[in-house]
Design brief:
There is one protein chain. The chain has a six-stranded mixed sheet, sandwiched between helices. About 35% of the residues lie in helices and about 20% in strands. By secondary structure, the chain is of the alpha/beta class.
């Protein structure tokens, strides 16, 4: 049995303000730091040899909190970054609608893309690349991947055998846990967007 545990990073101030973050390197908020400790406690009993992380600090800080009980290093990769949102990064939904029109966000994901943004296909390609590497290096083991809402949703879609059109139908909350299991050549999504560990504070 091979298990891949997906974790979205803890909350940042931009998450709380509903701003597009993309590849802007925003830190965890105080709430996000607490969330990182909560998810670390949740995963402390896992037998983990590998913790992979996006190299953006909000993901790295979450991964480093998770790594402490296991005494293993984290491995940061740029391929695990969030999608780059170009000119939308740092802006709230209200600011985007004021600048680009009220229908812009309704159409987002259906052909309308932020100016200067990374394409969905580009994100998909790098996530396939890094996920294949994780699978190859953690055969018969448990690996944790700490990333972002957008990037982790791609891996969920891969596990489900879905294409990019399914991304808009998946939600991953801050500090959520999702679990993929692989056995006898079959990949299954066992858990999606679980945050019950945050309610135990």
């Amino acid at each position: 049995m091979q298990r891949i545990i997906l974790v979205r990073h803890g909350e940042t101030s931009w998450n709380a303000e509903n701003r597009f973050q993309g590849q802007s390197d925003t830190p965890l908020s105080e709430e996000g730091k607490v969330q990182a400790q909560c998810v670390a406690a949740r995963l402390s009993d896992e037998e983990v040899k590998w913790i992979w992380s996006s190299d953006l600090q909000r993901a790295r800080a979450t991964a480093e909190a998770i790594a402490v009980p296991h005494g293993v290093p984290t491995r940061a990769y740029s391929d695990l970054r969030e999608r780059g949102y170009g000119d939308w990064e740092g802006k709230t939904r209200a600011e985007i609608e004021a600048e680009y029109g009220t229908d812009t966000l309704v159409s987002f994901g259906s052909g309308v893309e932020p100016p200067g943004a990374e394409s969905v296909n580009q994100v998909w390609a790098r996530m396939v690349r890094v996920f294949d590497q994780v699978l190859h290096e953690s055969v018969h083991e448990t690996a944790i991947i700490v990333g972002h809402g957008g990037s982790m949703k791609v891996i969920v879609c891969i596990a489900l055998g879905c294409g990019p059109e399914a991304l808009q139908h998946i939600t991953l909350d801050n500090a959520s846990v999702s679990i993929i299991e692989i056995a006898s050549g079959s990949m299954k999504l066992r858990l999606l967007n679980d945050t019950h560990h945050l309610a135990r504070r």
